[in-house]
Amino acid sequence: MLVHSKKARWVVWAVFLVLFLPLFALPLLVVVAASFATNWSGALPSGLTGDHYRAATSGDALTALTTSLVTALTASVLALVVGGWAALAAATLRARGRRAMDALFMLPVAVPSVVVGLAVLVAFSKPPMLLNGTRWIVVLAHTVLVTAFAYQSVSAAAVRLDPAYEQAAASLGARPAYVLWKVRLPLLLPSLNAAAGLCFALSMGELSATMMLYPPDWTPLPVQIYAITDRGSLFTGSAIAVVLMAATLLVLLALSRIRTRASYR
């Protein structure tokens, strides 16, 4: 830590806890507590039960969880390929070209996600690219929304790469494709992994654009949570929300293990 005094460190930790608990931890704890309750009329929940989790891990909720995982994984891979390639291409451009690329890829996050959903709906509701009513329009919208984060992460790392490694490989006769695959991408692997985790987490929780696009046979879990809580089943919705958080956290933990090994290597 930058604070060297023991007393000052205790003050910093106290301020952190005072700010962290009400803003971040308390809402999550409320959702977890509600997921085990059958009634909440006082300060604390009552009627503890695990029935909500049985509903959250079976039937439509389980199907929606699978839909969210498939959508998030597919969108993350597509975002890494498109955003990573664009970031590597932008690193070779001059300052004006890089600024233009930055503006292009950051545009989807500069506007509300519901605008992106509407744009995708209008653009792909007629031939020759008729995706409306299919799962692919949801995947496409998620990809558009998260690609900016993959681009930014890889772009920031690519600028900081030491060109000496690539120059040494090229001086030994390595072709550009070999240098990219064996030198540059391994150096960028921690950033690619971090970008994948961010894209996955954002896609798992995306709701606004998804509400405009999802077909009945491809309902992601956030939409399921919204529909259940809108009908008044707050406790079941809380259990499904906990399942969503747990699934996202497990994938992020797995990605962090890969990132740690990549950083060490």
Written account of the structure:
The chain has a single domain, classed as MetI-like (MetI-like fold, Orthogonal Bundle). By secondary structure, it is an all-alpha fold. The chain has helices at residues 6-35, 51-56, 59-90, 95-110, 113-123, 135-160, 163-171, 176-204, 208-213, 221-230, 234-264. It contains 11 helices and no strands. Helix content is 78%, strand content 0%. 29% of the residues are buried. Helix 3 runs parallel beside helix 6 (135-160) and helix 4 (95-110) runs antiparallel to helix 6. It is globular, with a radius of gyration of 22 Å.
Shape: globular
Unreliable runs, pLDDT <50, ≥5 residues? Answer: none
Supply the CATH superfamily name.
Answer: MetI-like
Which CATH first-tier class would you pick?
Answer: Mainly Alpha
Determine the strand fraction and express it as a percent band: under 5%
Query: Based on helices, strands and strand pairing, what is the structural class?
Result: mainly alpha
CATH fold-level label? MetI-like fold
CATH architecture: Orthogonal Bundle
Largest sheet: none
Give the helix level as a range of percent. over 70%
The span between the termini is 26 Å
How many beta-strand segments?
Answer: 0
How many domains make up the 3D coordinates?
1
Q: Summarize the helix and strand pattern as letters.
A: HHHHHHHHHHH
What is the overall pLDDT average?
87
With helices defined by DSSP (H or I, 4 residues minimum), what is the helix count? 11
What radius of gyration results from the CA coordinates? 22 Å
